Amino acid sequence: MATEVLNPYYVAGFVDGEGCFSLCISANPKYKTGYEVRLLFDIELREDDREILERIQATLQCGHIYHLTYERYGWTPHVKYKVSCFTDIYEKVIPFFQKYPLQAKKNRDFALFCEAAELVKRKQHLTRAGLAELGKLKARMNVYEHPGGNR
Amino acid sequence: MATEVLNPYYVAGFVDGEGCFSLCISANPKYKTGYEVRLLFDIELREDDREILERIQATLQCGHIYHLTYERYGWTPHVKYKVSCFTDIYEKVIPFFQKYPLQAKKNRDFALFCEAAELVKRKQHLTRAGLAELGKLKARMNVYEHPGGNR
Description:
homodimer, alpha+beta, 5 helices, 4 strands, 21% strand
């Protein structure tokens, strides 16, 4: 039986609570700039909620699901849904959440994530200037902001 | 300006990730059985996500929002949206999530919560037998279940 897709607004609500849009900039000597840039979208839940991740995967039509035992930490096992392929991020994940927008504070992270994706799409992550720009975007993502605007 | 309501499917998705349906049974000598029974629906988020709680409150048309400083613990301040009035639970919260169902494992807790609400509606929580029944429902709520079915 095919996995049942979800109402897209449901996905937006679920992701606003549980999803994470992140920009990874890591040292990698293979790159001219010395750094590799990756955009990631993921959702990590306890193992017993695997089915909802399969339905999100079926709805977004991309990504992979991983089992995380956390055995050596003695934690509850988890499952992670992850999209790391740039084409999927750019052509599937971003258009989806532009059509069915996030409504909570995560929409600020998503806006920065989209800016980063545009830079990567234009290959700016392979230049020093583009990398500096991406570093600035990253610094503004997933940061706790007080209602008064202070960090 | 009136607070903008949310798409109901968005609310279902958000609540599947962040909401909590609980049944509180606490010793209280004012009651003949010696115990008070309360049904609660709540969502607790970091303080900077207050707006989404206000929009959920506007969508469900019930409940209150509380500010939690957590000052003495040194934690990040939080906000909590809470519905504890039984009439609101029974006439607003439950019908809403029956119409726009939860899709993740939280739907099991919600089903038990509905069973508990029916018992309370029929005043069974004021009897010893009803209280024992509610205790059994509570024991099955918010419990981590392994995919194999073992607790």
